[in-house]
Amino acid sequence: MTLDQGATTGRSDLRAKGLSKNSVGLTASVVLGVSSIAPVYALTATLGPTVTEVGLQMPAIFLAGFLPMLLVAYAYRELNRVAPDCGTSFTWTTKAFNPYVGWLAGWGALLATIIVLSNLAGIAVEFFYLLLGEITGSESLGALGDNTLVHVLTCIAFVAVATAVTYRGIEATKRVQYLLVGFQMVVLAIFAVVALTKAGSAPGGISFELSWLDPTAISSFSAFTAGLSLSLFIYWGWDTCLTVNEETAGSARTPGRAALVTMLVIIVTYVGVAIAIQMYAGIGEEGTGLGNPDTGDNVFAALAGPVLGPGLAFVLFLAVVASSASSLQTTFLPTTRTMLAMAAYGALPKKLADVHPRFLAPSTATLVAGAATAVFYVGMTLISENVLIDTIYALGLMICFYYGLTAFACVWYFRHELRRSARDLVFKGIFPLLGGLMLAAVFVQTAIDTLDPAYGSGSSVFGMGSVFVIGIGLLLAGVVFMLVWRAKHPAFFRGETLKHDTPSLVFDE
Predict the structure, then answer these.
(1) 232: closest CA among 275, 267, 188, 180?
(2) Residue 439, H or E segment
């Protein structure tokens, strides 16, 4: 291991980890970001629940969810400029605050990615068998995804393939993603255009109204935060652009630009598709209405035939498989890079810092991430389908947790630079602070709301909602693991491997 002798204070003790250099440009970085977000998968999983929470204001809540994400993206950009390290949130919160906050931020990021990886695999399997059934005309083949044993075995196979591609490095990942991302975005655009053209004659079709874009029309603050939590989930993943920063040409600037471009592509896609689907299906509780649980549970599965016709419905199923599979593969990137960074600085076992000598990518971390994903998904599936559903709701808590910490880290890291210029004040101070406060508010309100067993699947543990138990419980488990690791390996927590040396502290000296 050699130290990166960068000129700035933030880079003075960052470790070169042996990853491939200059392998990702701006376009590839944007493609990886869009792939990780998985717009087709995210929409089919959340359109129905979002309508349940906010009704016709679904497009408005998508806009509202975009704002804190955009503001936090500026925090990531500014921190990446002075410390382009693949540990991102873990590294930056450690340097801004202390090793304990940094470790927990890394833990939150790892939890979020493992949960998403497992659910991506599950959705990919479900649509894989729906696709086979649609192509062959066999209902029994299409229903195989509902068979627990078949579903679990296929899921493990999907995770194994994604692990194998990721293991071969960023170049293999990049080539696969150009095809998968391009295909899903084209199909999504065609679906939205056809839905708009058919909206006037659809049984549940309704006319567009500007009030759909008004978040103040949402009935209550609890409904707003519940919808916002789901909205945050569908934007999550853009930070993949930053986690491959050490492998990106122009590592200090390109990843931040890619994240902002990714966010703009996604907001246009989401709002456009949300309006098109709402105009076509409406929010009624019968037929194809988005308020119908049979539709809302899997919107694209329900609307593929009515919108595209039976002859082309399989194309949308294929797009969902492509979206889930592509995101399954790219979501390994932040997981493995966070593990790599934490191990490189002594916050996790040293073995996780291994980099393959040929593929120049995390080797042990990739295998561990694949195994953890498979074990988590199989475990949750065998316990209860409701538990698996509640992990998605709990994901919002983890996203708010580590994104919010990173936003606040930006403000604290640069606090003595905020008066140097208007640009520094806005992009290093005001924007990240507002983004962090918004996410903190959603975190607190969601934690309160999820105490109610009626939240999510309706399951409870000791009288508390299972979403609360899963979300807060897993975060608290991180505290226990952190203290155990500190007792055996204290160097990181003493600041010996990654220093708390923000520009503000140097300025004070």
Answers:
(1) 267
(2) helix 431-450
- HEC readout, 380-407: HHHHCHHHHHHHHHHHHHHHHHHHHHHH
Q: What letters, b where the CB count within 10 A reaches 16 and e where it falls short, cover 112-138? A: bbbbbbbbbbbbbbbbbbbbbbbeeee
Would you say 292 and 214 are in contact if contact means Cβ atoms under 8 Å apart?
no
The CA–CA distances, whole Å, from 351 to 119, 365, 370 equal 27, 8, 16
Buried b (16+ CB within 10 A) or exposed e, 436-473: bebbbbbbebbbebbeebebbbebbeeebbbbbbbbbe
pLDDT by residue (tens digit) across 324-377?
Answer: 888 888 888 899 999 999 999 999 999 999 999 998 889 999 999 999 988 888
3 state DSSP class of 362: strand
Q: Which residues pair with 248 in a beta bridge?
A: 24
How many CB atoms sit inside 10 A of residue 286's CB?
Answer: 12
CB of 489 within 8 A of CB of 345?
Answer: no
φ, ψ for residue 420 (rounded to 5)?
-75, -35
Angle at 412 between CA 410 and CA 417, to 5 degrees: 85
**pLDDT at position 105:** 96
Choose between 390 and 190: higher pLDDT. 190
Q: Is 199:205 a contact under the CB 8 Å cutoff?
A: yes
* Statement: residue 7 has pLDDT above 50: no
Q: According to the model, what pLDDT value does residue 172 have?
A: 75
Q: Is the pLDDT of residue 507 over 50?
A: no
pTM summary value: 0.87
The percentage of the chain sitting over the pLDDT mark of 90, rounded to a whole number, equals 48
